Amino acid sequence: MKDSRTVCFNDIFTKHYNRVYYTALRVLKDHGLAEDVLQETFLKAYDRLDEVQSERKLGSWLSTIAARKSIDQLRKQKKVTLFHTEDTFMNQADHNCNVEEDCEILLFEESVKRKIYLLSPRLRVVMKLHYYDHLKESEIAYKLQLSPGAVKSRLHRGRMAMRTKLSDELTQNHSA
Q1: Cα distance between residue 174 and residue 161, in whole Å
Q2: Is there a contact between 133 and 107 (Cβ–Cβ < 8 Å)?
Q3: CB 80 within 8 A of CB 93
Q4: Contact by Cβ (8 Å): 161, 167
Q5: Which of 39, 71, 102, 129 has its CA 20 to 30 Å from the CA of residue 25?
Q6: Closest CA to 86 of 127, 129, 140
Q7: CB count in 10 Å sphere of residue 6
Q8: 116-127 b/e with 16+ CB inside 10 Å = b?
Q9: In angstroms, rounded to a whole number, what is the distance separating the alpha carbons of residues 117 and 114?
């Protein structure tokens, strides 16, 4: 017969599984590692379940544990993930950073992705192929059946639009 703590924990696991898994996956970008972090998160939560004072805060607490364990996992593996924004390379797992800085970088990357989706479809597809699929301008031109000049022009216009969108966001954040 199962004790009430086990039954309660099973309910918590079922309810928050997806949230914790996708929090880890967003940071790690690896399904296997995200599953490992998911397991570690729920093991830690099981050991410290009596510390949770409000059921409303349980999801946030679990997500925080998952995010921190994911960042720790990146540091353990010394995995460096670079993403290119204009002419700046940013290191997501800088060993001298603290958790807050790591999270800010991840949030910035998510913001960049959201801004790309706000671009016109013609600019968006070229930006995604170049920055996320790492295709060269000539490869994009061939794939989309465009001239190399059209691809270069769309990349330029996409960068300018992204620069405007990101600077607008920074202005709003600093004035708030």
Answers
A1: 20
A2: no
A3: yes
A4: no
A5: 129
A6: 127
A7: 11
A8: beebeeebbbbb
A9: 5
Unique residue bearing structure tokens 């540091």: 75
The SS3 of residue 112 is helix
Q: Are 62 and 74 in contact (CB under 8 A)?
A: no
DSSP for 12-25? HHHHHHHHHHHHHH
pLDDT tens-digit readout, 114-152: 888 888 999 999 988 888 788 899 999 999 999 999 999
Name the pLDDT band for 157 (thresholds 50, 70, 90).
very high
Q: Model's pTM, two decimal places?
A: 0.44
List C-alpha distances in Å: 32 to 28, 37, 43, 60, 70: 9, 9, 17, 22, 12
Beta carbons of 116 and 141 less than 8 angstroms apart: no
Residue with tokens 């290191």: 91
Residues in the chain: 176
Question: What tokens were used for 91?
Answer: 């290191």
Planar angle of CA 11, 12, 18, nearest 5 degrees: 110
